[in-house]
Protein 1
Amino acid sequence: MLDELLSRRVLFVTGKGGTGKTTLSAALALLAARRGRRVLCIEVDAKGALPACLGSPPVPFEPRVVQPNISCLALHPEASLQEYLRLYFHVPRFTRMTPLAGVFDFVANSVPGIKDMLIVGKVAYEEKRMSSTPRSGARPQWDIIIVDSQASGHVLPQLNAARAMLGLVRGGIIRSQVEWIDACLADSRRTLLTICALPEEMPVAEALELHDRARAETRVTVGACFLNRTLRTALTPRQVRVLRQAAAPEHAEAAREHLGGELGPMVEGIQLAQRLAEASQAQARRLRAGLSCPVLEIPVQARARPGLATTRLIASALTAG
Amino acid sequence: MAAGVANASQRGSVHTPAVTPGSPNLAVELGARAAVVCCGSGGVGKTTVSAALAMGIVAEYDKRVMVLTIDPARRLAAALGLHAVGPDPISVPAARLRRAGLRPRGELVAAMLDQKSTWDRMVERHAPTRQAAERILANRFYQGISTAFNGSQEYAAMEALYELHSGGEYDCVVVDTPPSRSALDFLEAPDRVNDFVGGRLLSWLAGPSRLGWRAVNLAATPFLRMADRLLGADVLRELGEFVRDLQGLYDGVQQRSRRVKSLLRSADTAFAVVTTLEPLPFAEAEFFCQRLREEAMPLGAVVVNRLLPGDLLDGRAADAAGFLVEHPRAGAAWLSEAAGERVTADTSRRLGAAFLTLHQLAVRDDRQVARLTHFGSLPLARLPLADREVVDIEGLATLTAVLRGNSA
């Protein structure tokens, strides 16, 4: 399944806020790079979290190498607007951006579709970008582009941005660009959407909704769902039962003498852990039942701080699963 | 057994909880105020805590309490009687609270934030004329701004808080805040909206009102020329009119912002910072507490959610678990006898290891919670991790009991 995903040209990674999509995007980048692919990671909300997961300080709008075979860029709003204008409208770079910086937020948010087009336009531009080396001749700059998208609510309009623009624009340079972008997104051999979820009520509900809406409203194919922070139980029901029986008050004195401690508090804690694991598995089943794509589970890494070490752990968990 | 006891210190049986037990009654502490703002990163359980806290306040005080939720889960909303977003607040019947084990002294009312109508009211309140208000509300760009603009939901929450507080209908308003990566978004919302509405940055987009678009020197503004080509002249003109109308709101919005900020600073208000022990939300919470302290804003309490149960800190259990791991055959022999069935050495090791893993997590968590005591003698509530989400009044009442200082 991973090979399927990593053989694509473009992967969008989305999910409800807090479901781990940034770490997951970084882990996928590591795995692709290990397979010898030249990877570009795009951080849509430019907060620096994605480069941090790859062990790098915040990155600019130009791709910067952060790990062997992995480059990363962030979609800083002013810079992406400038480039968009330059590429598609041949508007030269402005030297004084200050008034524009303030305006961008306003324009991008008030005129429907502009921000989305900038994002999708950039992704499509990088996908098409060619490089030329003496050894390999002309070939795509990147083998795979991984897009750490915004939280689920926002990604659908982005995936539809091209189609929405087609409705607004009659012809000319914009239309042909937009047609090309739309075709790229719709080709499941080139582009896939992946959804992140947690084994909890609301994240699962959102993942299911996002999956259904993506299928109904866009032409992008949902390739997989990553279920993060799953819990598995280390003990069988019988083992827990044995503990409960042995922890009965009548054995307390003997426990103190033979084991040097108390079993009572052990029981509560272990039973809670069991129930949590069961709840996690129930949510996983609910998720699988509602999706048409494979679900890859990633076990919980206890309170791991975001960073390269954690990303490597997640990458290992992905290959092990 | 000597061997078990000798290893006690390695397993932390000398560990004592870093924060003195004796849980505070947050409902009493915070309910004394007129406004309680529950802040924190997205996903930490703010909505649930807001609702449980409001229920606690109603149990402690003969007050009319409003809890304003932002984006509650469907079942939680239903538990409070909220079935649809709308301007009308819903009274939570005392009978329902009593069935859940509470004895309400006051009255609880719940509402969901209606972002759009809060913004609409703001426009109507500050627009210089009725026509200007209607132009803005009808403008298609306004739709995008009032819902998508970064900070618009936070601003609406603040507006709603101010409206409810100054409306005089409620003795205490408990406000949930929008989920965001940074808890600071809430504090910065008024300034952001000020800047945006202030329009100084946008004034060149508005163009001189007497002369209209065409008179503006387009040669000097390549952006406008491009935008003209891309979007069409009508769009730009509409945009310009919109910006000019917005500028008319500026004075009113600025004054309102000052009043809102003043409320947030006053002795009438308390901030309750909600967090879990996950690295990102916790770092946000620490940062937020620090910021509130620096700005002399009323930090009232901290609520740490989803904590491992206190049982797991128990050193004597850790001792027993350690024995089961280090002496699995002896452990198995004893377990077999006590349980009345055959237990293998492997089981002994697994049971011990399972507990020790949880124990080590609990010890580490406890130390992490202790970091929050750096903010002085701040009432701190610890809410336990549960295996099921809170989806009804009974579940909320369990949290309310903890927030009031009774053990769960």
Protein 2
Amino acid sequence: MAYRSIIDYVTANWGMDYTTYTGYPFGAGVENLPYLISLRIWECIGGAIAWLLDLLFPGAVTIDGYDIDVSAWLIDPYTCVIFALVIFMIVIFAVAFIAVLISLWEERKVLGRAMDRRGTMIGMWGFVQCVADGLKTFMKDNVHSTRIDKMTYWWTAALVIGTSVLIDCMVPLSGRWFVVNYDAGLIIIMGLYALAPFFILVSGWAQNNKYSLIGGIRAAEMMISYEVPMLIIIVTAALLAGSLNIGDIVAAQQDVWFVIPMCVGFVTFLICSTAEAERAPFDLAEAESELVEGWQTEYGGMKWGLIMLADYMRGAVSCGMIVILFFGGWQLPFIDLMQVCKDLGPNFFWVPIPEVVFLLKAWFAFFLMIMIRCGVARVRTDSILNLGWKVFMPLSVVNLLIVLALKVGGIY
Amino acid sequence: MDLQIREYQDSWEAEIKSKLEAKFAGKLTVTGTQTRKVLAKVDKSIIKELCLYVRDELSFEHCISVMGNDLGDAEQKMEVIYHIENYTLYKGVILEFTVDLSYDELHIETVSDVWGGANWHERETWELYGIVFDNHPRLERLLTPDNYEFFPFRKSYKLREAQ
Amino acid sequence: MTDEKITQIPDAQAIAEGAEVTKEMAAAYTGSTMDTDKMWIIMGPQHPFSHGLWTLKICADGEIVTDADPIVGYLHRGWEKEVENRTYTKIIPMADRLCYAASMTYTHLFCMTCEKALGIDVPEKTKYIRIVADEINRLQSHLMWLASVGTDFGNYTVFLWSTREREYWMDMNVRLCGARLTTNYPRIGGVRNDVFDIDCDLPNDEDHSRFLRDLVRCCDHFDKALWEIVGLVDNNSTFMSRMLGTGIITREQCANLGITGPAARGTGIDFDIRRDNPYDNYDQVDFDVPVINSGDSYARYMVRVEEMFQCTKIIRQCVQKIKALGRSAPYRLKVPSKIPAGRTFCTLEDPRGESMMYLHSDGTDHPYRLKVRSPIFVNVSASKPLLEGCRIADVPIIMAMIDMCLGETDR
């Protein structure tokens, strides 16, 4: 093969529509921006390797009479699809992870200012503090009691962290930035979201510690109080949009965000999702003033660090849910952001305007949660049960009635 | 307790003194009175009766402290000193009862059932002086470790720096 | 379930023959086999709620506390024994260490007891200076209590706002005595330095004392700043639901258990040593004693908050009196180092309750016996009646309302 520039290898497939590749997981014609980014990243990596192989070993390698053209295989569209999928996972996780780190930083700074202090101050206005925290927990010894139930102890922690990361990655950032696009996407996310209290309950028992046990039981006790009104509101939003598909719900809010017809539901949902994320004032399961660290008492070092990260990921999912259900998702009123991106031309259509809009709204929702946190005291288990069944439950039904009236009245 | 709250009067000390001396003649000597203070020396046999009397009849509701005092080898005795305060009838007046106990017989009736607040004071006095309060509900070590076998506040127990 | 258990049902035979199962039979059956276990939970000595080194064992039936057993003594230093080998002057800094949050009160109490034993009367100005110092310490202590209550509520805003306000009073303390916590300021027969000797390079007469001026400014600022914190707590149902109706004790219980100070005034005991058994010149200043009858956590909280407002009122009056007495008035007396033989005792209104010192002197320069009555020592012994029937979540709040300070408890 004659000498070709590295550019030729990298751009070998650029003329083709990537959505039509064999094995493309999202269906022909469905755009997916993170996948496209992963594809381009792989084309750079694979193309560079292919170029290097051809440079070092000119001509096809022949083994037992077969031409094994590794470089051609590396830049083949079918191969690219598979390698790009691996990179796709990393890209999706990295974006979710960084978004969570930013919300962590936001909490520290906003909470700090609300309390008349400065918050974290290490590098980049305090953002680098989370790196220091990560390193610190990473360097810790892996210490655990000898009297724990080992299997459940490890598995429940892994499952709490795992499901949290999974659902955080499943929250779509825009119509072209998603992992799955099921018709029941919202229900799947909520289903996985509601799993954590069960793991916490088992984990509290597995640690052989009274504080953990009480913490675990509290998590379960709390779940039955906020889960029902929350799901009623989700179903109400779906009713308003006429679909449980996240994309359809967002599309239904093109001009009027659901926060206006469902203002009652919004307040209820905000508080319920704070409870779902186990953030203050609903962090009963880890109430540090009486239960030391609640169900996390026996988890130390990196385990604790990851559980903490998972907590913030759940917070981010709550905020994502709020944005999807009430704040119009990745849309701004009266502007079609996807069209704006398309109008930027073939070279700049990837500029992530809707994605950034979504994240900004999510951080705003998180800001509301932070404000709740800095102004209230931790509630008691009996008061959250009271609150859940005597206040949120009627409110969510009122919200449902309002929506039904709007539907019947033909406004929606 | 439906007692009226009164403003302080100078006559209160004399009033309390005469009441106490009349009730416990021979067993109790009032050694002095100061403003809002009545000090008395009490025989150990009447301490429970006396405490019930001052609580129920004179409305002394609050036991400030029960303390021990080792008078040393010369006198061969210890003291238990009670400070009792009034919130209503003689508002602000403090009674001080001093009870002598000889080294041979370091026993005295508990008053923790008269004033719940005396409970820990008596435990403390027992662990530091070895004065046994009879019928105390729970005479255990409180401040010092459970395995102590001596009573550190007695004068016979010398600190190293004092030697 | 084994056959053996089935035969334990009282009327198993009758039921087997078709008799109706009554409620009593079911209760007898479930009562004997479905017994819920009570669990002893040991909170402390290393526990976020125990602001200091102590242990609270609580017996929990589910979330309900049925029994409580406080364990103290981790900080026992034998203070009362140690001072028997110290001269009276050397005890002054040791008395500071009894309570780090309001060190001035114990030093003040010690000096007052010695003065009473000596039979001397300290100068008028000193009395007012001591009141000012005491009230600054009371404010510090109450603000630290408010801060720790904030953390027990799981709310760090209250914590940081209170510590912020506390810094102003700390600064006043530093100006007055040169130290933040352990001040070593009162002396037997007076105080260490005059309030007019601060900033001595500046003009420093009655009209120009910078310390007194800043003290009044501090009071003005604090009255507004405290409303900010109180506004956050009192207008907030999450705080109120944790305080209202929890940890209730009656007035009779409270008096009998020896609970004193703000906790007692929260149950309706109208008693404050500063007013009812006045020492120094507390009878010359005008202040109110807040009393609330409800006896729950909120009453104790409210009494302390109201006391803080009264503190600034007292400080303002004392500043006026000190200014009127002027720079030339004496602030310290020469006193002999030996105290004549005798017994004397003094009580003083500590930020946490009633503290007392009993001095048995034998004519030498060191005490024969010096007893300290610590309010917290008695208050904490009443944990069981306070906590019985509350929920585990309320334990930190109820105990915080007592304002634990282990230095004076264990002595």
Protein 3
Amino acid sequence: MTDLTAALKEELVGHDHEHVTSTGISNEKLAMWVFLGSECLLFGGLISTFILYKTRAADGQTPHQLYDILFTSISSFVLLMSSLTMVLAVSAVQRADLRAMRGWLLTTALLGVVFISGQVYEFTEFLGEGYGFTHSPAWSAFYTLTGFHGVHVTLGIVMLLSTAALSLRGHVGSHNPESVEIVGLYWHFVDVVWVVIFTVVYLIK
Amino acid sequence: MSEISVPVAGDAHPDLEHHPEEHASDRQFVKVFLGLVVVTAVEVAWAYAPWADDHAGRLATALYWGGLMLMMSFKFFIIASYFMHLRFDSKVLTRVFYAGVVLAVAVYLIVLCTFQLFSNTTPGFAP
């Protein structure tokens, strides 16, 4: 028993105090993936509700008739580009280039802010034309789905800025690159959900 | 006494192995991004193609839907594989994530069928 304890200690010290897990994957990373898997069910429900109610508009004016596809395509491009800058931030921290990592994190956050600004603009336009949340089931479903996604993007921006701030204090860096990778996983998930929303909500008639 | 191996992050069963040497380079990430931009552009063009017309035949409608769904799935898979590193990470993570995706698609397809979305009647129960 003493030998076993000693061997365990030896192994732990040899691996610089990494977490011992039965899967070999850190608990934090596995938890994020499980969370993202469960988020698929949340967005699946919201997308299905939108599909069911997309034609239910009180005066026949459905969200699809008011979309500005060029504008939304540019928003999609911005979010896609933020995924690239995020992956470059992860790449930078893995090669211990903290300055580049902070730069890419802030660029990603900025692109997220641009995307959210676009969404606020779009919502304002629709509201200005008299199509609010309670106008009809179609509009309620539209605002709920895209609004939930917007909240996720906003939380992602907070996570990005927090990570950049923590790296300045030395809490995040080359000694724990996985923390940046986990934030990146969340951000890419938000992008991947938008890929589905863009096609199902905006493109399909 | 024989040596005892304790699994730690990045040191486990072959199924759980990480392959850091196979991680894509920054240049490859840029190429993946450009590919995604091209697919998105094709997707938008596809939505305005002649077969997207409301009065097009059933074959054209199937082509319209099928094309968009295929491109959307392709983009989803590429982002998950490259940007989320599933291609290079442990297979357990791939299973965890795609289990959620497959479960969501299956559950909500059943829900949509229950609400008669794929029949000729008006979907939903509300008047």
